[in-house]
Amino acid sequence: MLQQVATSHVHLKDYYGFLDEESVMELERLSTRLSGLKVAHLNATSMGGGVAEILRSLVPLMNGLGVQTDWYCINADTDFFQVTKNIHNSLQGGDWQFDGHAHDVFLGRNRRVAQEIEALDVDLWVVHDPQPCPVSAGLQSFRQAIWHCHLDSSTPNRAVWNYFQRYLVGYDRLVFCLPEYVNGSVPQERVRFIRPAIDPLTPKNQPLPVSEARQILAGLGIDPSRPLITQVARFDRWKDPLGVIDAYRLAKQEVPTLQLALVGVMEAQDDPEANVVFEQVQRHTGADLDIHLFSDPRHVQQREVNAFQTASTVVLQKSLREGFGLTVAEAMWKGSPVIGGNCGGIRVQIEDGHNGFLVATPEECARRIVQLIQDGEVRERIRANAKESVRKRYLMPRLLKDYLQLIEEVVLGG
Ligand code: UDP
Fold first, then answer.
1. What is the position in ligand 1's atom list of the atom closest to the CA of 48?
2. Would the pTM of this model clear 0.70, i.e. be above it?
3. Number of the ligand 1 atom closest to the C-alpha atom of 238
4. Which of 141, 169, 230, 243 is placed for a possible disulfide with 261 were both Cys, Cβ 3.0 to 4.6 Å?
């Protein structure tokens, strides 16, 4: 059930260009304090989605700093991931009821994961999201553990949250992105807040000349001479792909040459619903040849995502719920104007009208698309502010520091 994900070591000095002197000193202090400690991250999938994206960079950096860190994910069946996707949806506010079967599947698989964990020599576990959360229940060797919830649980299905929170008692710290995600009788003294970050050194986030990005898009069937709006996101109902298509259709009435790309490569084993949403999207697309759908990982990898985020006229992330939304930071980092759904983690990244736009409906979204396409001055102002706000707040070294400080607090008492 437990599968180790291969990772490497990355040295902090590669990131010096993104760090001030004080942060370098603090990271070196932390690495000395934590040397000899064995940390392991546990999540649901090694590919697809924001958590895997973060761990792929964070784990090698922790190792590079001398904090021995492993990464495990759960190798489970579709039955398990169907149940956990329902839990995920209902913690974000969806309508669903836990029944006996779901309980047995959820707990049964996690018990097996727990048995495998018992055999491992780890001092501190960092468990991500609901899927593996119950492993904490009743484990002897699970001495110290952090649960990091990446969801937007601001308006959860109450019954499911009440069921779920019994599994939180086994954790020393409970990490959320925002205060409004903390519900029910969660022990407040154990709650901490950490915002995610993007890695400026991955092929996805390194600078890519616009001309090269346009060539890559042309190779994928996009006409680089016409305006393009793009949403990079898993095919998931909370990402509102149907609302994006509606917004595109409205905007196209004013900008007839407009093209839309929906980029949602299906890699995440914990998201069995993606196919269903993709089919809905295909039906909603109809015969419109200016809507381009991408779901095949052979066609779109990191460099192609970079090209979409670099060369699109406007990037959308029209989510209805969003724990944080790495895609927003990724596009803003490339200086692209982003229109985001006015919810959760998008709201903290975008200051409406300053470094992007926040919208609640397809109509509002369409108005902003047209404005950004037609008004070069607004576009340029948003571009500069967007890049700067990510540089200040949402790059990986800051997340590394937040994590190590939290681990120090748990293991050594701060
Ligand atoms: N992503 C990708 N290819 C895709 C769709 C998404 O590489 O076709 C990446 C995206 O660039 C981001 C992550 O998957 O790094 C999604 O993270 P986010 O926090 O936006 O959303 P989540 O999927 O975790 O809900």
1. 14
2. yes
3. 25
4. 230
Instruction: Give yes or no: residues 6 and 117 share one domain.
Output: yes
CA of 305 from ligand 1 middle (Å) equals: 9
165/53 same-domain check = yes
Residues 191 and 299 grouped into a single domain? no
By most ligand atoms within 8 Å of CB, the mutation choice from 150, 232, 306 for ligand 1 is: 232
List the residue whose alpha carbon is closest to atom 23 of ligand 1.
Answer: 49
User: Any idea what DSSP says for residue 356?
Assistant: B
Distances (CA, A) of 85 to 78, 106, 126, 130, 157: 10, 11, 20, 9, 14
* pLDDT tens-digit profile, the chain (414 residues): 899 999 888 999 999 999 999 999 999 999 999 999 999 999 999 999 999 999 999 999 999 999 999 999 999 999 999 999 999 999 999 999 989 999 999 999 999 999 999 899 999 999 999 999 999 875 655 679 999 999 999 999 999 999 989 899 889 999 999 999 998 888 999 999 999 999 999 999 999 999 999 999 999 999 999 999 999 999 999 999 999 999 999 999 999 999 999 999 998 888 889 999 999 999 999 999 999 999 999 999 999 999 999 999 999 999 999 999 999 999 999 999 999 999 999 999 999 999 999 999 999 999 999 999 999 999 999 999 999 999 999 999 999 999 999 999 999 886
| Residue 204 in domain | no
Cβ partners under 8 Å of residue 4, min gap 6: 70, 71, 72
